[in-house]
Amino acid sequence: MTxxxxxAAAGILYATGAxxxxxxxxxxxxxxxxxYHHVVPGRLIRDNRLxxxxxxxxxxxxxxxxxxxxxxxxxxxxxxxxxxxxxxSWEEPLCAVTFDDGWKDVNDYALPLLKxxxxxxxxxxxxxMVGLQGPGGLDGVFEAIQMTDRLVDIRSGVAEIDxxxxxxxILDRVEKARQVINRIRELSYDEFMKTCAGIxxxxxGTFDLDGIRWKYETMSWDDMREAQEQGVDFGYHSKTHPILxxxxxxxxxxxxxxxxKEYGREGILLKPVFCYPDGKFGEExxxxxxxxxxxGAVTLQKGFNDAGTNxxxxxxxxxxxxxxxxLSRFVLSIGIQNR
Length: 339
Ligand SMILES: [Zn+2]
Known about the structure:
single chain; 339 residues; alpha/beta; TIM Barrel; two-stranded parallel sheet; 16 helices; 11 strands; 46% helix; 14% strand; binds zinc ion
């Protein structure tokens, strides 16, 4: 399998122009959708404990843009979704660039590069996360595990999560946080809320958070208007970013209803394209999205899309420093060699 290809082999693949060869042959009629979260200078990634899979350096991002603009026609996501819905096929490989959650660093570091390369992008906004100076939710869980001297001081209120936090089995704090957060994601909606609230209460009651707020600042309405003026589209990513498959049916509509008027009052035109929080979705979720007249929705299932892809199950490749920190790794991660 291609996953066993080393970085060196990937480097050769790229250097020999094979990527371009593969794309010409196999990219035809395909659309690649990329998912990014935070973009910050590489030194900030090297010098800080950060949540796994969420950060890409500006240096890597610029390399990606160079590669993508050479090999793809980059279009706004909405346009690609409309094309797929139309049933028409196309020739040239297409690509859409998306950012999840609406982090402020996208304004600070990604926007100037998007402008320089004339690349359109879509930011998936969470209504409850506009203009925050965080951390909160699972980000607060991550920070509590990084900042505490004594893990036993953290009490989530859910015995199973506490046991995992207190256990000596994993010493690396970033890895511990990753595992704890994955377990919290599996809890019922009520337990999920209770756990996050409990740990965030401990965090804000124990530590001065000023030194880490830069990691969790989200776009304000002003930032969003600035981005929109520079050609960024906004799609929707739920009201509070819950795991939708755990949300009680009665709350689902509230999470998914497109707040067109509310965003409109702030000068933001929301596009009817949805992004499943953590990529999780089920039949009920899709049914509500259809009722709400969304055009489509993006997942975190890897792969290319084509004219036959269901617009509510759009494949998307999540890119971060771990799988996109060099151009050769990026080329492997987007899966060109599988085509
Ligand atoms: Zn998200």
